[in-house]
Amino acid sequence: MTICCLSIWSCKHQHGQSESPLYKDVMAIHDKVMPEMGKIHSLKKQLKAIEVPQANEIILDHVKELNDADEAMMTWMADFKVPEDQAQHDEYLKAEKVKIQQVSDQMYGAMDKASKLIDSLTTLTKK
């Protein structure tokens, strides 16, 4: 699923898109956070591998948060379509810049919280 979405995104990203400064700003945020998708998947795998029965609920909550961040990025990419109409172009990109920044914040926040949980549970299980 992710590979398919990435392929579609790559094609949409390369063909006929505006190179305005605002478009570049939107893409800069996207391009910074997109490589973190692999880290999200890695963190989910690490969380699922932790066997601390008393922490199962919090582990599942963090996995869900990572899944939600992953899905937010996939949804943003699928929905991102710069309008042909120049009158709508700048307003659309301004709104998309806000949206992709929110996705970025969501992803980094979920990864940070998951990493901290993994560290604390790993420390707990070593005692």
Task: Give the helix/strand layout.
Blueprint: H1 2-14, H2 21-33, H3 37-49, H4 56-79, H5 86-126
Helix pairs in contact: 2-5, 3-4, 3-5, 4-5
Characterise this structure.
With 127 residues, the protein is mostly helical. It has one domain. Helix content is 82%, strand content 0%.
Task: Summarize this entry quickly.
By secondary structure, the chain is mainly alpha-helical. It is built from 5 helices and no strands. It has one domain (about 1-125).
Q: Please estimate the helix content.
A: over 70%
Name the quaternary structure: single chain
Instruction: Report the sheet-strand fraction.
Output: under 5%
User: Overall 3D geometry?
Assistant: elongated
Radius of gyration: 18 Å
Q: Number of DSSP helices?
A: 5
Structural class: mainly alpha
Determine the N-to-C terminus distance: 39 Å
How many beta strands in the DSSP annotation? 0
What's the helix-strand series? HHHHH
Number of domains: 1
Biggest sheet: strands, sense, closure? Answer: none
Low-confidence stretches: 1-16
Mean pLDDT: 87
